Amino acid sequence: MRDMYNVFHLAIPARDLDEAYNFYVKGLGCKLARRYSDRITLDFFGDQLVCHLSNEIDPNPKMYPRHFGITFRERRQFDNLYKLAKQRELPFFQDLMVRFEGMVEEHLTFFLIDPSNNLLEFKYYHDERMMY
């Protein structure tokens, strides 16, 4: 079981660190923790996201199987992030939709795409037991 003091760490490729900074910090509102010549480290909703400078960018990303994101426990937080993404005109890979409609695992989801073609999914389950 995860201890609330532990932090999940994810490293992703970034073709340009200024673009990554603009998307994650100025766009999504993440906090910049550190910046080096080859990477930026971010507080991504309480976890650590590291954008490493790379020339290996997926030119044709697909939602499955490779993406990452946040599953919100509170609908209000999900809605607020969706509104923020719309207001700041962040690039959507897939706009808001309902998955598994009518089933216990029904949830709201949308996907953003960052400047390096990394896909981010944000979800909210109506039944919080389905979060895991």
From TrEMBL:
Name this polypeptide is given: Glyoxalase
Coiled-coil positions: none
Record InterPro entries: Glyas_Bleomycin-R_OHBP_Dase (IPR029068), Glyas_Fos-R_dOase_dom (IPR004360), VOC_core (IPR037523)
Family annotation (PROSITE patterns): VOC
Domain of life according to the entry: Bacteria
SUPFAM superfamilies given in the database record: Glyoxalase/Bleomycin resistance protein/Dihydroxybiphenyl dioxygenase
Domain VOC: 6-125
PANTHER family: PTHR39434, VOC DOMAIN-CONTAINING PROTEIN (PTHR39434:SF1)
Pfam families on file: Glyoxalase
